[in-house]
Amino acid sequence: MTNDINIGDKVRSFDFAAHRDIEGPDACFVEGIVEGFEGNHLVIKVTREVFEGENLEVIGGRKVRAPLNGLRTSRGRITDGVVKIEEPKPANPISDMDLSNLTEDQLDAIRTLALAAEEHFDRLGSASEFAPKADRANRASLQAFKLIGRIREEKETRTVAA
Predict the structure, then answer these.
(1) Which end of the chain, N or C, is less packed with Cβ atoms under 10 Å?
(2) What's 93's DSSP letter?
(3) Which helix (H) or strand (E) is 100 found in, with range?
(4) What span, in angstroms and rounded, lies between the C-alpha atoms of 13 and 83?
(5) How far is CA 159 from the centre of its chain?
(6) Cα distance between residue 145 and residue 154, in whole Å
(7) Could you tell me if 125 and 134 are in contact, meaning their C-beta atoms sit under 8 angstroms apart?
(8) pLDDT average, residue stretch 119-138
(9) What CA–CA distances, in Å, run from 39 to 4, 57, 64, 67?
(10) CA distance 146 to 111
C-alpha cells in the first residue's frame, strides 16, 4: 500500500483495525487536516471525533498522531487506518448544463439574452456604490459570461460532430 496522503489533506483515522464504521456503536475515529509528518506518523489537527458512534466535543487545536499507511505492526499487520476524505465537488449549474436537446434557434435566443444580461449587470455593478449590490451584479455578470461560453462550446461540439 502506498501513502498518498499529503499535508493539507482532509483525512479520517480509524482507531481500530476491525472497525471501519462511520455511524453506529462501532464507529471510532477522528477526522482532521494533515499538518505534517513525525517519523512514521501523520500529525492531524482534529476537526471531528467519534467514539462508540457518539460525536465528542473537539477541543480547539487538538492534534493526534496516526501511523502512516503501509507500515508493518509488531503483530505483522499492515497499517491502513488513515483514509482521505474526498470533498464532493459542487455542481456547476452552468458547465454541467445539458444543452444537447436545444435547437440552434433556442441556443441563439439564450445567447442573445445572456449577452444583454451580462451587459446590464456590468453597468449595474460599476454604477453601484453599495458594495453588496455591486457584488451581486458582478456575480450575475460572470454567470451570464459563463453561459455564453457554455453555449459556444455546445455549438462548436455540434459543428465538429456534423
Answers:
(1) C
(2) T
(3) none
(4) 7
(5) 33
(6) 14
(7) yes
(8) 86
(9) 16, 28, 14, 9
(10) 11
- To the nearest whole number, what is the mean pLDDT of the chain? 87
Q: Residue 3: what pLDDT?
A: 61
Q: What share of the chain is helix, strand, coil (3-state, %, to 5)?
A: 35, 25, 40
CB 128 within 8 A of CB 137: yes
- What is the model's pLDDT at position 1? 42
Rg for the chain (alpha carbons), in Å?
25
Residue 58: C-alpha distances to residues 19, 21, 23, 85, 154 (Å):
21, 20, 18, 18, 48
- Cα dihedral 131, 136, 138, 139, rounded to 10, equals 140
The dihedral region occupied by 58, where left means phi > 0, alpha psi between -120 and 50, and beta the remainder, is beta
Alpha-carbon 63 to chain mean position: 23
Closest by CA position to 2, among listed 101, 93, 71: 71
CB-CB contact of 61 with 44 (8 Å): no
